Amino acid sequence: FLQVGVTAPKSMRLLPASGRKATQKVVVGDQDGVITCFGIKKGEAVPVFKTLPGQKIARLELGGALNTPQEKIFVATGSEVRGFTKRGKQFLSFETNLTESIKAMHISGADLFLCASYIYNHYCDCKDQHYYLSGDKINDVLCLPVDKVNCITPVLACQDRVLRVLQGSDLLYEAEVPGPPTVLALNNGNGGDSGEEIVYGTSDGKLGLIQITGSKPIPKWEIGNEKKRGGILCIDSFDILGDGVKELLIGRDDGMLEIYNFESADNPVLRYDHALSESIASVQGGCVGKDGYDEILASTYSGWLTGLTTEPVRREDGSGEELKLSQEMQSKISSLRNELEHLQMKVLQEREKYQQSSQSSTAVSSVPAFSVNDKFTLNKDDASYSLILEVQTAIDNVLVQSDVPIDLLDVDKNSAVVSFSSCDSEPNSNFLLATYRCQANTTRLELKVRSIEGQYGTLQAYVTPRIQPKTCQVHQYQIKPLSLHQRTHSIDHDRPMNTLTLKGQFSFAEIHSWVVFCLPEVPEKTPAGESITFHFQNTFLGTQLESTYRKGEGCFKSDNISTISILKDVLSKEATKRKINLNISYDINEESVRHTLKLIHPKLEYQQLLAKKVHLIDALRELQVHEGNVDFLLPKYRSILEEADQLLEEYKRQPAHLERLYGMITDLFIDKFKFKGTNVKTKVPLLLEILDGCDQDGLIAFFEAA
């Protein structure tokens, strides 16, 4: 339909229709601070109103008195909330007392719910009512429908994988969800029959329904992300199939738009999906383009508004009718072609003008600003990091540089050409230099990297879009010492654990900053209260870590000696930097080494077998060509030939997997004896020989005999 500026999630809505079967107006807010309201007449976007630019618009919601059409437009910009009528007249400017920018907003009648990073505020008629400080970043806020539940029940979606349910200014309870929730929506748009049902989407692409009762959460259903699609950014309920039941419309950050319907009452089923080229910030169902035909409207990151319609492109009730409709289509296509030619001419003229002016001595070249939407997250399934870069214009190239050893893994969706540069062997220099050259019109690039625990530093991405003059933006991502650990709700206390205890003259804030430095997914803000406990799981091995600390004391427990060893080294280094004297004691459980080896061994066996099979493929294929058939081979060799392509694909996808496992076992061996005060580096070659033989009991015996 049209393009506005870069849009944030949840910043586009459809205004309720005024008459029967009338089309709806679209209202969207962008990061230039402009609110655009338009309708569609004869396939063209007709503006209703447009505001002047200002601060970025983070959220756009509709409101109005309860049980009346919700047609007042509210936007959150910076720490201010503004209200507009559907004609575009501003009737409210409410400057909140929040010190940070508003990240999430919900409106219900006279109640306004706002969240900055960690702070939740509830206002009624613009008067401050309640306040809550969350333990981790708040991504979204929602309130159960007051007319059904008869009390105000705000729900916060927090980064630490919980929904926090509030009562007034107090926490009523926490509901655990399977990933960091990014978006909340009322089921069916009204909270279901009870008014207590909330649909949530997570940043790792999972979707679920949870019932928020007055006393406890009741999970109803949950859909994993088997297809490895992007994180969920927006959810809407709308009956697009016309069967009387509202479907779920889901927009993801990899441009996937999905429609789920409820065939059985239990779980939703994916019925349709459509791939757009960039992340979907908002999705709405309604009647926009043509009277009588419902459609799904999506707004994407760079501000495109796109519709998917139920209107048939060709009618089947007679030849004349069919021609008439395709004629309408033809005229639309030809007008678009003319517009394109006109634009191309304009671009050429402007470019010539720019070239001429740049030759003059007085001309000053200004750096064009462009916005980059980036996401750097750890995937639980394959213990790798995804780096997603999305730019508002086409990307020319991205240079990736790292000062720690990391592996670049293959991404199927990635069409860019990658080339590697050799790095200096000096210490403190580059370990990785790779350039991704993108094809024309690529605005989104996804990379996958795997780090090694214990090696920490910075990964940098230099992003250069196709704009003149050539400009580049640098984005930095920290690779932490325990980079493959992910926060989890609870751990198994029956495992053999090693303990590291620190005591010294340090404050709660200081030890918290050290934990933030070591581990991902820890909130940067020092937690409220005297002490705090976090649980982690190593995504590569499945070992676990519990960290509990307060002022002057920290205690770390893990079933993996290497985790404790890394923590000991990094924490003592950080304390030395600040001239703090640490008293470090540790309690090593011999049983834990055997336990960790048993966790690593099946992975090791699998990778060694895979490597052996891959080495045999060429020889077997040669035999096949030579002999004409392979019936004389043993079944296990025949199956290698049948699965050759999958085996090669898997081997290519995890290039240094076996080396990583060897490295982990070697580290475990060295760390075990390091805590006993002996140096066993001379015995490492022996260990590697045993690893090639790959016998679990022999390996455990070697560890115990050394």
UniProtKB/TrEMBL annotation:
The lineage of its organism: Eukaryota, Metazoa, Chordata, Craniata, Vertebrata. Residues 485-587 form the BBS7 platform domain. The keyword Coiled coil applies. One of its GO terms (biological process) is intracellular protein localization. Keywords: Coiled coil. Residues 326-353 form a coiled coil. GO terms for cellular component: axoneme; BBSome; ciliary basal body; membrane; neuron projection. Residues 12-310 form the BBS7 beta-propeller domain. Pfam families: BBS7_GAE, BBS7_hp, BBS7_pf, Beta-prop_BBS7. Residues 368-477 form the BBS7 GAE domain. Residues 590-703 form the BBS7 helical hairpin domain. The gene is Bbs7. It comes from Ciconia maguari. This is BBS7 protein. PANTHER family: BARDET-BIEDL SYNDROME 7 PROTEIN. InterPro entries: Bardet-Biedl_syndrome_7_prot, BBS7_GAE_dom, BBS7_hairpin, BBS7_pf_dom, Beta-prop_BBS7, WD40_repeat_dom_sf.
